[in-house]
Amino acid sequence: MSHHKKAIVLSSGGVDSTTAMAIAKSEGYDIYCLSFRYGQRHLLELEAAKKIAGYLSARKHLIINIDLRVFGGSALTDDIEVPKNREESEMLKDIPITYVPARNTIFLSYALAWAEVLGVSDIFIGVNAIDYSGYPDCRPEYITAFENMANLATKAGVEGKTLIRIRTPLIHMAKADIIRRGIELGIDYSITHSCYDPSLVGKACGRCDSCLLRKKGFREVGIHDPAVYVD
Questions:
Q1: What is the rounded CA–CA span in Å between residue 16 and residue 104?
Q2: Does the domain made of 5-188 have the CATH classification 3.30.420.40?
């Protein structure tokens, strides 16, 4: 594959988006990554995203400012406690309060605008329907619907110049499989950040859904999780 093919990759600084970026790079794409300062509880994930962009030699890394705190409605953008120590059955029972209303739709819309400007067909997003089946905007049918909309909504799509594809290489993978794939691709997961509610000095809480799923993934792969936890 030509090394001049471009892909936009949504990057949160976590395990999933970093693995998706490494997969895009392994397929020969030049990486243009996009992250958001959206009013989330902390900016450690953006520091991680910057490191990852450098580590995977992204051509460009944009960080967009939007403020989803004006709406609130999520433990990540409002003064709502982040759930801790939940069993996996609890996580899967209903849509968790860490779901940020319409977040992936907003992020993908920005990626779509940049894709049209760059003449890019492929947008990679590290959504996963296994571990987070409670998130409506991580499901395959949502991705298909967004892709259809993208090709109706853009000049490039309507003129038939660029067919937009929303690439979701991790959508049917369990966390352990994602980590295993990333290690095959040489990812240093110590530069990633997963925690929803880190300490003031940046240590992961180890008890939120995201930390628990990450720890379980590394445990199942049988390798040390390089994240620094409070305990």
A1: 14
A2: no
